[in-house]
Specification:
The protein is an alpha/beta fold. The protein has three domains: 5-147, Immunoglobulins (Immunoglobulin-like, Sandwich), CATH 2.60.40; 165-293 and 355-362 and 391-397 and 416-586, Glycosidases (TIM Barrel); 595-710, Golgi alpha-mannosidase II (Immunoglobulin-like). It has 14 helices and 30 strands. The strands form eight sheets. It has an eight-stranded parallel barrel with strand order 14-15-18-19-20-21-22-23.
Length: 714
């Protein structure tokens, strides 16, 4: 042995071994991918299986052109990974990208272009788009500039909430649209900080999970269309065109211009958690912002096109997403990228769950064929970091693959239940033959999710994609002319009904019926087994003027008008009390499907009724569904919880014979959408006793909810 321990350097990996383009550097660590702070420097690691060479391009904040270009020496590459540690960089001012060499041979799937500076797929911050709606200069050599996120946020002990799935009430909203309206009254409209100011509103409403439409960095200015009526430039408002999967959208942060969007986002999550509200992200892994062969080269296309995308034999892009390209999700490298991304948001941002846009694509192979056992979906279901995260699939895609009820679930995945949406819409507007199907949907769709339980069903009637609830009862047809596509875009099968007048009206009879139908939908949604999801603004009658595809509208049609909180106070209060009704009754939030067995209780866990007790009518012409939902566990009187729900889609009132209650119990009226204002729904614990304990009258086109218990409230 020559030498002693005190002659060794402090670290064996904190010094340069050579200079690359004048910068001290050494071979880097291959994993993790991306840019990572290491002692004295930054480690850069990027994957490209088919590039012949790679260079790291360094920029400084505020400077248009690069300050240096560092080719990766041959010995800095292992397999398909280029890795280099560079020392002495100012990480606060650092911006970086990559330049990949290789063949430009589209027919073989390669589209390398050395003239392009490429964004790091693993970049945790993207700079250059800190101001909403600001277009990049046409001659900018690198419009989406990768940067390093700060790593000094104090979570103050925050952890994900881990609420039971069956207890969730999800509130889908758009970060910008929630507070952008001038009436919002917040200090920073349209931002994460603005949303924080509205947390008291969310708490008062009673929701306990906020589902945020895309917050991964995207470019809202990539829409070239204009509103044909006004000439106003349209945008990509919703954000389903991801540019940076690891980076929160900078222009949603009031501090984004200072590069503090990461901390602002984390603070929003921490504050929501303090209020008992989980955070679910709407994530888009089915396609990217690079589009088809005519689209921009931003990242994946220039790094390794045939790895990251599904390609036809001719080298074109399969388009199962409807947006020009489809990510090759079950390729091992792409699969690893998606898992790494979600781990990042779960670990670094304390996210509680993810809703996957067009998730059926995640189960396709490289040629687009559905897989029986998709590796990506299995990996996400069993990932140790994601163990406590909710996983929700939009179980269809634009290529015609519809998997509602059959999505590969591994006993972990829930689904947006499109069957629930369509059934409730059709029943409420009076379509024949819907009674039996509505009964199935009210129980959490056991025909679809019998093995998984009711919480596998995310019940919704409206969402960002389609009519708002106000528009659902106000329009027979979509009115998307402002989108610049001659009203061809958006779904034609809306199952909506204008109740006699298309759009706004002053007719009191029409308005009265629309208002009742709105409450019918809300009450059915919040008393159904499964997980209800409310669309932001439905609780106050927000309208999109009949547009059912507002993806491109950064206007008041998409913004939450906070003046409605006052003008629609009655509807808001109805929604709040319906949410509270759900929370108070375990019979409405079962973890397992009801099967009609009594199990030693006073009643079966579910029983069906009609105008006569215990005698339902499932015929084609029936428009009445009545159920007695019973839970013999905690809740209600003496540990028993009993809820009677009746939905009448007839034009006439009906007299309903009620099931007899145990001695000492009384039926009380929790909600009646046909009642006069002030009596349509009641505070939990203050429900008035039903005058006739044997019969109840249900008005035409209305929903009635009774609760039962001994002595006081049910």
């Amino acid at each position: 042995m020559t030498g002693t321990l005190d002659q060794l350097p402090d670290r064996l990996d904190d010094g340069a071994t050579q200079f690359v383009s004048g910068y001290p550097a050494r071979p880097g660590r291959l994993l993790p991918f991306g840019a990572t702070r290491v002692p004295g420097g930054v480690n850069f690691s990027v994957y490209s299986n088919n590039a012949t060479a790679m260079a790291l391009v360094l920029f400084e904040r505020g400077r248009r052109d690069p300050v240096a270009e560092l080719p990766f020496p041959p010995d800095f590459r292992v397999g398909g990974v280029f890795a280099m540690t560079v020392f002495g960089l100012d990480t606060d001012r650092l911006r970086y990208g990559y330049r990949a060499d290789g063949e430009f041979h589209p027919e073989a799937g390669d589209r390398f272009d050395r003239t392009r500076v490429l964004t790091d797929p693993y970049a945790t911050v993207l700079a250059g788009h800190e101001e909403w709606g600001t277009r990049t200069a046409a001659d900018d050599p690198y419009p989406y500039r990768a940067a390093l996120a700060p790593d000094d946020f104090d979570w103050e002990g925050d952890t994900p909430l881990r609420l039971a799935r069956e207890d969730l009430v999800i509130y889908e909203t758009h970060v910008r649209g929630f507070t952008r309206h001038p009436s919002s009254g917040v200090a920073a409209p349209g931002t994460y900080a603005g949303l924080v100011e509205k947390i008291p509103y969310l708490r008062e409403l009673g929701v306990n999970c906020v589902e945020l439409m895309p917050v991964f960095e995207f470019d809202e200015t990539d829409n070239m269309r204009t509103d044909p009526r006004t000439g106003r430039q349209l945008v990509n408002y919703w954000g389903y065109n991801t540019v940076g999967f690891f980076a929160p959208k900078a222009s949603y942060a009031v501090t984004g211009r200072h590069g503090m969007q990461v901390d602002e986002f984390k603070n929003m999550v921490k504050r929501l958690h303090r209020a008992g509200i989980e955070v679910m992200l709407d994530v888009v892994f089915n396609h990217t912002a690079e589009g088809n062969e005519l689209g921009p080269t931003i990242s994946f296309r220039g790094l390794d096109n045939r790895t990251y995308y599904m390609l036809t034999p001719e080298g074109y892009y399969y388009n199962f997403s409807g947006t020009g390209n489809t990510l090759n999700c079950n390729h091992p490298v792409v699969r690893g990228f998606i898992v790494d991304c979600l781990r990042h948001w779960a670990a670094e941002y304390h996210i509680d769950g993810f809703r996957f846009d067009l998730a059926a694509i995640l189960g396709r192979d490289q040629h687009g064929a559905p897989l029986a056992n998709p590796p990506l979906l299995e990996a996400l279901a069993h990932d140790p970091v994601l163990r406590d995260c909710k996983l929700v699939a939009e179980a269809w895609d634009a290529g015609g693959l519809y998997q509602v009820g059959s999505f590969p679930d591994y006993c972990r995945w829930s689904e947006w239940n499109g069957r629930y949406r369509d059934t409730v819409r059709r029943f409420v507007k009076g379509d024949p033959g819907m009674a039996g199907d509505l009964a199935t949907r009210l129980l959490g769709s056991p025909d679809l999710y019998g093995r998984r339980g009711p919480a596998a069903s995310i019940n919704f009637v409206t969402a960002h994609d389609g009519f708002t609830l106000r528009d659902l009862v106000s329009y027979n047809d979509k009115h998307n002319e402002a989108n610049g596509e001659d009203n061809r875009d958006g779904d034609n099968g809306n199952h909506s009904w204008n109740h006699g007048v298309e759009g706004p009206t002053a007719d009191p009879d029409v308005l009265r019926l629309r208002a009742r139908q709105t409450r019918n939908v809300l009450l059915l949604l919040l008393t159904s087994q499964g997980v209800p999801m409310l669309l932001s603004g439905d609780e106050v009658g927000r309208t999109q003027s009949g547009n059912n595809n507002t993806y491109c509208q950064d206007t008041e049609d998409n913004w939450f008008d906070w003046s409605l909180v006052d003008t629609e106070a009655d509807l808001l209060e109805f929604t709040r009390l319906a949410v509270a009704l759900r929370a108070a009754h375990p019979a409405l939030r079962r973890a397992r499907h009801a099967d009609g067995r009594a199990d030693g209780g006073f009643f079966p866990d579910v029983s069906w009724h009609g105008t006569r007790a215990w005698t339902p009518d499932w015929s084609e012409h029936s428009r009445l569904v009545a159920a007695l939902l019973y839970d013999r566990g905690d809740g209600g009187a003496d540990g028993h919880d009993c809820v009677y729900l009746a939905a009448n889609a007839y034009w006439e009132p009906l007299e309903l014979e009620l099931p007899s209650l145990p001695e000492g119990w009384t039926w009380r009226v929790a909600a009646d959408t046909f009642a006069d204002a002030g009596h349509r729904i009641h505070e939990v614990g203050r429900e008035p006793e039903l005058g006739d304990q044997e019969w109840a009258r249900i008005g035409p086109q209305s929903v009635l909810v009774l609760v039962a218990g001994s002595g006081g409230a049910g």
